[in-house]
């Protein structure tokens, strides 16, 4: 029986739900747009500037404009931005695939630097942006914002968008930068969870040693437990598939089990208020390292491409969605009377993002270089600039948090909140498009230097990598020991 | 940023949405159960009786009982049965994959018989059940049911559940039976849409030639337009992928494009009130016949298994879901005072289903045998019994329709409606489990006879198959002409 029939049933029952029809229409429009994005993205593949995310974002905004005009300014989006959609359906496949496809050797070699950037770096940028916002916005009359709001602003705008990173950085072209910036983005998530715990639970006005210790302990607990949960999920799937020889009867069961267990690990992490992103990321790493070697040949090909495809669709969906949502007339109504001020707020925030990131990339790179013996291992200045630059993009994560902090049920009541929402959108659009456009060339320019520093030789942190892998190895009956 | 963070944000904002937490819990439980079903289904693979759908159904019911006990009879399901979930998300992948993997030669060879069963057969069973219900229920006092309700009962219980068929019949073991019963199930959908149009628009009390002509015309239009839409979607995807050489840059784009365009064709059909099932089924056939040959090797492996996996997960999900929902305390409360009567209603309906199906399988098989020249082509009596038997199962489709007809916003107001809902659930559970259990052995018993009739030789309707395929061929630039 088709939905059409059901719709007719509704008509028959005299309770014709126009919402059903509307949702069918919007799904049609949205899927058609997705197809469009994929085709256009394919045609622009050779382009020196554009990448898929920017295409989707732009198409989204254009569609928003069209809808806005056709509905005569009534509405501009076909879906209301929902955090559930984002955190429950779109984010997991993207991060899982990133973990599944990440170059593990490169990742674990730079593990310490990644931790440094992800944990300490995020903190530095958080404090810089929060204090900057307090200092600059207090003078301007943009409605009432309390200390909690300012701290939230700090967290919102230090949230590196891992998804954008995946789009602009190419793992094969620049493995070092990729693993640094993306890894940072993943760890960044754990930090932010701790950060918000802190904002809620600790009195941040008089900070003392105990609070800082608690804070560090909290982060350690969160990081380790999330990682272990992810690793456990991966190992369990490997064990079941190997022990029960699932592939004997059908390939599909293997693939289904991998997908479901990865998703389960993410949702479990959310249930336990851990960092789901960290969990599913490490689950992806472990699955590609153990499970993947225990499945049938066809399952290997399938998983490799199926996960990539899912994540690909989720990414396009996400940017299209953000682009469409950006023009939501509701949000702009409140600030339409003072466009100049709204613009000033946005540019201040953009400046703070730039400064906040610079404030940790360069010092921490310097620190990490001190630990490196060989000069090939060091992060040269040009690379530091790229790291700083590539991490400037803010995306759906920032928007989701801004909505969460500054709106109730999707509508802005207070003037201050309205300003924050609109500026967040402005910053996201601007940073993604402009910074995104300029990252590709920037990287191509210094690719040569990159390649030099990629010469393979025993590195200081390589041992750590092997330790980590050995540690996990003991847990699983895996066929081979080579670090893949 | 993780959902955990968002949840904490909610806490912070003082609007802790327990619903969010609840949904996370239920998703965890549900995904865990899905994994369980897959593992158990794997362990029971060799079993002579059980199949995956029955496992899922039983596990679902058991979980329902547990939840019922833990919540002290307050609720028994973690999700409320939603038609959208079923028709928008679960059904399309299942039917698409069925079309994608179907043995086209076999299907088109039996095309006429399938049409006969799907169109005329469904009508016969519809009238048998409706009239039987009117005759038998009028005497019993089970609340008020009008003529519309009785006709709806006819439609609800003549809805062959294609999904169950896929589970019990094995295409490789019994290709003829599979193509007949499953094909019938697909065409059955178009018939039902027309049927409901008819119930709404035509005055069925005084039937005359014009009405019947209208009816036939209506069916023809619906069938042809749905088929053409599906074929067009498939050919378009083939054309785009071949012309733009999407595979040049990435395999993932090819796979993504195939998935999205198949889904788009389904949703378009729904939008135009056509039969989405027919559309997506033919879209699957065309894609496996043209598009599949234009994609890269890895895309072929990926699509073959990825689509099967999606459909596999959707099926398990569906049966688990139906099983869980079956115990919804709300529905049973109304009939709890007269269990005997409820049982009688259910058994009457079950009897009507048996009779209604027998009323068209045997006569129509006889008719179709008349057209067959070679005795190998004929449907022998034992096969007719199997066809009758294998199509007896009623599933989620019937439930969705019953809810739609007899409930408003998921709750039963009238006594008569309550009876119908509970009896539908009883019939679905009983038919799926009991008939399902007995189908596997039944088929194995007469497999030999089947194999004899599978000897390959030019058949009367084979020409039609080639015609159909040639017809579509002209539309597409496809690499080879062999009927795959």
TrEMBL record, chains A, B:
Provide the species name: Ensete ventricosum (Abyssinian banana)
Q: Where in the cell is it found?
A: Membrane
Q: Which residues cross the membrane?
A: 22-44, 56-73, 85-102, 114-138, 219-241, 275-293, 305-324, 344-367, 387-406, 418-439
* Residue stretches in coiled coil: none
The UniProt keywords, alphabetically, are: Antiport, Ion transport, Membrane, Potassium, Potassium transport, Sodium, Sodium transport, Transmembrane, Transmembrane helix, Transport
The Gene Ontology terms for molecular function here are:
potassium:proton antiporter activity; sodium:proton antiporter activity
The Gene Ontology biological process annotation of the record reads:
regulation of intracellular pH; sodium ion import across plasma membrane
What is the protein name for this chain? Answer: Sodium/hydrogen exchanger
Q: What is its main location?
A: membrane
